[in-house]
Amino acid sequence: MSLAGHLHDSAEEYPMLREAIRALAEEKIAPQAAAADENEEFPWEVYKALVAADFHAVHIPEQFGGAGADALATVIVIEEVARACASSSLIPAVNKLGTVPLLLSASQELNARYLPAVARGEAMFSYALSEPEAGSDAASMKTRAVRDGDDYVLNGTKMWITNAGVSEYYTVMAVTDPSAGARGISAFVVEKSDEGVSFGPKEKKLGIKGSPTRQVILQDVRVPAWRMIGAPGTGFKTALATLDHTRVTIAAQALGIAQGALDYAIGYVKERRQFGRPIADFQGLQFMIADMAMKLEAARQLTYTAASMSETAMRGTPVKELTFFSSAAKCAASDAAMEITTDAVQLLGGYGYTRDYPVERMMRDAKITQIYEGTNQIQRLVMARQLLK
Ligand code: CAA
Ligand code: FAD
After folding, report:
1. 268 C-alpha to ligand 2 centroid (Å)
2. 1: pLDDT confidence band, cut at 50, 70 and 90?
3. How far is the CA of 349 from the centre of ligand 2 (A)?
4. Is the CB–ligand 2 distance for residue 375 below 6 Å?
């Protein structure tokens, strides 16, 4: 039984989990982070190491063969992986994003069919909502699913799909009733091996280069009707309800990236000497470091609060503040990560601007956390709607 599996009820076990995942990250993940970025390759060795330690999809419940980690434990795992390598942290994060739609809305049978392979590390699961013309306005998607006998036939292009090509399974949102707007969207499980599924070229990105981002192209893909997640017309609600849980994991990724940059910068300023003394002696830099740590801890508290709400909701008790808190956590943590990583580059001076040091990669990686799972403008829109309704 994995350590993560014990974490439901005992607060003392979170520090033990953090220690275990940090040790793994320092030994097996950090050493390859620069190469994953430079070569733009999916870190298969990291995947294997995460699977061996049962950290690749910790949130899958024990009844489906998973570690059964709660939302806070999942956050801690993602944080610690991201502290070493942001690209690698998308392994546990996207496995959660792809499977939460099933955990929230699918039948026991569908869950039992797909989740155990993810828990065993034999398959990864991606989430396909966005399209070339439907990003922030996700409900304006064009991908169609038309009923034909016992099947649905899917046609369309999903854009920006994280881990596309390396994942076996995809939660795909598609329009089943074009006259019903957001209530005419349904969610399906699509398999990589389904006839008619193909992938676009890898996007050439600013950061998280070790995580492939590709189009998922669906051409007359025949999916049995039992692979629909929940009832017809509930796909958009499921997609948004999922994001209420997984924006917390993007917040965790942002915290991890920021912590990595802060830790590196603190070590550096104590060693680097100018004007005859360590640059850490200069109050101008001390205040920068204090501000970086303060912003990080504030974002962390918000993220852990959101994680605790997410866990309560996953266990079946609705939490009406979850939508606000998950958006607030994602927004605050990603904005903090961008500021902290930018300041870390500044603290290293010219060296920080080169690839000989990890902070420029962290700064490039941090930027995506302000964009995906809804841009930070959209998070503010979500928060404002909650406050004003
Ligand atoms: N949970 C459940 N249902 C919800 C919900 C929630 N949090 N929020 C809204 N809904 C329901 C509404 O009640 C409504 O249903 P009814 O009509 O039955 O009442 C329906 O969903 C539509 O809601 P809205 O009218 O509010 O929808 P909208 O079209 O105005 O858009 C939006 C809402 C918040 C802008 C949404 O489109 C959004 O979040 N956009 C951003 C897209 C996004 O986050 N994409 C992430 C892609 S994944 C990714 O990026 C992956 C990665 O990081 C690795
Ligand atoms: P647009 O929606 O075109 O937005 C452009 C600008 O307009 C942004 O600044 C935005 O904030 C602003 N804007 C738009 N509407 C409003 C408004 N109402 N008010 C104020 N400002 C607004 N999607 C998936 O489904 N699955 C994935 O796995 C996935 N992974 C991704 C990985 C990467 C590396 C990237 C770059 C994206 C990924 N996405 C994924 C898509 C991501 O969620 C979208 O890029 C994001 O939601 C924004 O959509 P867009 O890029 O079309 O921008």
Report:
1. 35
2. very low
3. 32
4. yes
Residue 4 CA from chain centroid, whole number: 18
pLDDT in tens, 172-223: 999 999 999 999 999 999 999 999 999 999 999 999 999 999 999 999 999 9
Please determine, looking at this structure, whether the domain spanning 235-388 carries the CATH number 1.20.140.10.
yes
CATH hierarchy code of domain 9-120 = 1.10.540.10
Asked if 125 and 114 count as a contact pair (C-beta separation under 8 A), the reply is yes
Q: Which of 14, 93, 9 is nearest to 50 (CA)?
A: 93
What does pTM read for this prediction? 0.97
Q: Whose CA is nearest to atom 50 of ligand 2?
A: 135
Give φ, ψ of 321 to 5 degrees.
-85, -5
Ligand with minimal distance to 215 CA:
2
Is 373 designated active site? yes
Mean pLDDT of 261-278: 98
All structural domains of the chain with their residue ranges: 9-120, 125-233, 235-388
User: Distances from the Cα of 235 to the Cαs of 114, 161, 173, 181, 345, in angstroms?
Assistant: 18, 17, 6, 11, 42
Closest atom, ligand 2, to C-alpha of 134: 52
Tell me the CA–centroid distance for residue 280 and ligand 2, in Å: 39
Torsion, Cα of 230, 232, 236, 238 (10° steps): -10
pLDDT in tens, 113-163: 999 999 999 999 999 999 999 999 999 999 999 999 999 999 999 999 999
Predicted ipTM of the assembly: 0.99
Q: Looking at the structure, give the CATH architecture of the domain made up of residues 125-233.
A: Beta Barrel (2.40)
Amino acid at 150: D
Which numbered ligand comes closest to the C-alpha of 211? 2
Spatial separation of the C-alpha atoms in residues 240 and 253, rounded to whole Å = 19
